Amino acid sequence: MNDRATVPRGRHAPPLEERLSVQRRRLFQAAASVFASVGYADASAEAIARAAGMSKATFYEHFANKEECILALFDRAATLVLGAMADAARDAGNDPRERLRAGIRAFLDMLAEHPAAAQTLLVEVIAAGERGAERRDRVMAAFAAVIDAENAEAAARSGGLARLASPEDAFAIVGAVVELASRQLRLGEPEDIRDLEPVVERLMVSLMTPAAVA
């Protein structure tokens, strides 16, 4: 989620679209850092632009205000995390438990490697009012849908995982995992967010065993 690339100027400058893309990535990185360090309420467009090494005018070329910035950053972070989880599950092959472990590991690795963006994804967006809450609810629903679809495929195979008892079970998993990860980001417990992997796996497997639906 980080990109500190600089853009050549003058006659060697790349096309406008490419320059704007690089600027936007740098602004996302700076915004994640500012939101994580001072919180959404105390963040400002000026602070984000300064952290990106840009003018405030450049910030406003990309975002109308800090609310639009955090929502765009949230969308990008969520897309990257979901994509990483999907790729990891696919690369793990057809064994349901290995796919489950790979998805969990990819999720936690992304949060560990990009803690500032993770803070925005799981914590700071809540402070962005109704639109932030709506965005968070939408992404949590998307995560739940991914888990439910993966579980449906797993239950159709002979991997020892049963179908979730209800769609709410998928939401329960997402809610628990988000709270575990948010707590780690806020309090540093456990010290490494990746240490949550066995906890998350036990949680998910406990709802995906034949006994859970008996």
Structure commentary:
Helix 2 crosses helix 3, helix 5 crosses helix 6 and helix 5 runs antiparallel to helix 9. The protein is mainly alpha-helical. The longest helix is centred in the middle third of the chain and has 28 residues. It is built from 9 helices and no strands. The protein folds into 2 domains: 53 residues, Homeodomain-like (Arc Repressor Mutant, subunit A); 147 residues, Tetracycline Repressor, domain 2, CATH 1.10.357.10.
From the structure above, extract its key features.
214 residues; mainly alpha; Arc Repressor Mutant, subunit A; Tetracycline Repressor, domain 2; 2 domains; 9 helices; disordered N terminus
User: Stretches where pLDDT falls below 50 for ≥5 residues?
Assistant: 2-7
Could you give the count of β-strands?
Answer: 0
Q: State the major sheet.
A: none
Dominant shape: elongated
CATH topology of the largest domain: Tetracycline Repressor, domain 2
**Helical run tally:** 9
What structural class do helix, strand and pairing data support? mainly alpha
Distance between the termini: 43 Å
The CATH superfamily of the largest domain is known as: Tetracycline Repressor, domain 2
Please summarize what this structure is.
It contains nine helices and no strands. It is mainly α.
